[in-house]
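Async update (no meeting this week)

Hi team, since we skipped the sync, here's where things stand on the single-chain job. The sequence we agreed to prioritize is pasted below, unchanged from the tracker. I ran it this morning and attached the output directly underneath so nobody has to dig for it. Comments welcome in thread, and please keep replies under the output.
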Amino acid sequence: MIRACAVLGFVSAALALAPPAGARSPAYELQPSKADPGVRAFDDPSYALIGAGGGGDVPLVVFLPGTGGKPRGGAALLSVIAGQGYRVIGLGYDDTPAVAQVCPADPDPDCSESFRRMRVDGAGHAVVSNPPAEAITARLAAQLAMLARTAPNEHWERYLADGQPRWDRIVVSGLSQGAGMAAYIAKHHAVCRVVLFSSPWDVTGPDHHPAPWLSQPSQTPPDRWWAEYHAKENTAGLIRAAYAALQIPPDHIRVFTQDIPSDFRGNSPNPYHVNTIRDLRYAPDWRIMFGRATGQ
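Output:
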């Protein structure tokens, strides 16, 4: 039970909402540019669903994919989360290039923090840029507002205040670069819970030590942080160092060890990394990391 956060059925397909093909649970795709015409790039549909019991006053889980990822890519994980009683949005965003592709060679120790601020808030000066409308915070607010308009009986406005996300009613999560964005948000806002999959590993300097922002004070207290990584990931050591810098309690960190399944599809050079949100053998761990929505 998540009791440390303030928390607070079915949306009908209309206008900018359309049910994804083959969906086995109540789910909808939301086109970012229909929620806000200011979105011109990275316009892949976001993925929203409500699990059994998720129609009332429950937290919203916002999941951010990794570099080059699409919101539907984590459908198996998102369905498990919804089964815990949450509402869920798999949120697309400007996810290329990756922080890890840009900042390690930059002598500025604050490169990764500036990079993430630009992607999350659309502000500041960084080695990447995106229009404010394409920032994660703006995208989420616009899509919640669209849901509130088109499905008024679902009360999606509970997750908004003055047009901005109500972070205290939101669980932030993500894989890889998306997990780093979730961690950045949790550092700057007191979120309901944060769940990190195999990231961040923001580094600086010739010895690749953790970037300074990872050790900065956090608005989200330590007991709301959860994380995992696979023991055989290429960057497992860097991830461990980042989790220590973030001060995630050791008993809130899950270490995955399953071998890659024989039916694994993909040509990733780091398959253990991407498999952490695909392999249903990890579902018991996922349930522990997210807990059950309050009231379930």
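Quick observations from my side:
The first strand starts at residue 17 and ends at 18.
The first helix runs from residue 32 to 35.
Reply here if anything looks off.
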